[in-house]
Amino acid sequence: MALIRWQRPETARWDPFHQLSSLRDEIDRLFESPFSALSEGLQPFMSGWSPALDLYEDKDNFLLKAELPGMKKDEIEIQLHDGVLTLSGERKEEKKSEGADIHRSERFVGRFQRTLTLPSQVDADKVKASYQDGILTVTLPKSEAAKPKQIQIKTQ
Amino acid sequence: MNAVVQRDNNQVATTQPERRYVAPDVNIFETKDDYVLEAEMPGVSKEGLEITLEGNVLTIVGHRADPTPAGEAVYRESRPLDYRRVFELDPAIDGDKIGASVDQGVLTLTLPKAERVKPRKIAIA
Questions:
Q1: Are A69 and B105 within 8 A, CB to CB?
Q2: Residue pair A115/A129 in contact by the 8 Å Cβ criterion
Q3: Which of B21, B74, B105 sits opposite A57 (nearest CB)?
Q4: CB-based contact B27 A106, cutoff 8 Å
Q5: CA-wise closest residue to B29 among B68, B3, B65, B67
Q6: Cβ contact B35–A103 (<8 Å)
Q7: What's the alpha-carbon Rg for chain B, to the nearest Å?
């Protein structure tokens, strides 16, 4: 499945070239597999909220960043199992807007879940996570076996 | 009457051709005493916010605090752009008393209604 975040059209800036290329992508996808295209196309409407994920890699770590604005630390769940990282959680509707007149409601409310297969093995005991300014950062140290090794050539 | 009207974002983009922004998602609701605007700007701290009011035009700009981490991006879904969105305020909003706070990437603006437009109860003598 493509790991591309669905964007609501009205929030994205108008860019004719972007529109063209995405139209082409849509057409390509239709020909790839009609049924998967259909279900992927519908997914944003069914899943509701799909927070943006970024994954970075350096020599020693993977670094995952997820945009999760306005949550509480304990509403976010992180699971790592067999190299598959799952982020899930639920954002609850805030009470203060209850009974008020709603003029705009663009922010998502409800559950989300994102699953990511890590490109190589990580040391599950050393994973660290922090949450600041609405961004969750998960640092996943690579396991020793997954790190690149320099092999010395011996001369006789 | 439309309380807090969003201006056309395309218009904003053409006046500033050099910089690209992403429009934050907002919720706007109205209570008895004020309008409340919540804007999602993950990655923006208090220091990165610029809120300006010129006449009745409210501009929210958020600069991302998080620098791109070291290493190579394997996946990238977020857009590394600053946030900007412009609203035209109802003249009934008291511009001097706008309150702002930011918590975990969500900016909350409280826009109080001026005293003169609040519903008043008139007692029958």
A1: yes
A2: no
A3: B74
A4: yes
A5: B3
A6: yes
A7: 18
Distance from the A23 Cα atom to the nearest Cα atom in chain B, whole angstroms: 19
Please report residues of B whose CB lies closer than 8 A to that of A71.
Answer: 104
| Local structure of residue B12 (DSSP, 8 states) | H
Among B33, B41, B36, which residue's Cα sits nearest to residue B115? B33
Q: Residue A150 and residue A109: Cα distance in Å, rounded?
A: 49
Q: What pLDDT, in 10s, does the model give residues B25-63?
A: 999 999 888 899 999 999 999 999 999 999 889 999 999
Q: Would you call B10 and A13 a contact, using CB atoms and an 8 Å cutoff? A: yes
Question: Taking CA atoms, what residue in B is nearest to A102?
Answer: B29
- Rounded Cα gap, residues B47 and B28, in angstroms: 23
- B102 phi and psi, to 5 degrees? -135, 135
The per-residue pLDDT for range A50-70, each reduced to its tens digit, is 899 999 998 899 999 999 999
What pLDDT digit, counting tens, does each position of A127-153 carry?
999 999 999 999 999 988 877 778 888
Backbone angles phi, psi at B25, to 5 degrees: -70, 135
Distance CA A98, CA B118 (A): 20
Which one of A13, A95, A130 would you mutate to disrupt binding with B, by most B Cβ within 10 Å of its Cβ? Answer: A13
How far apart are the C-alpha atoms of B38 and A143, rounded to whole Å? 42
CB-nearest to A14 from B2, B10, B31 is: B10
Distance CA B81, CA B64 (A): 8
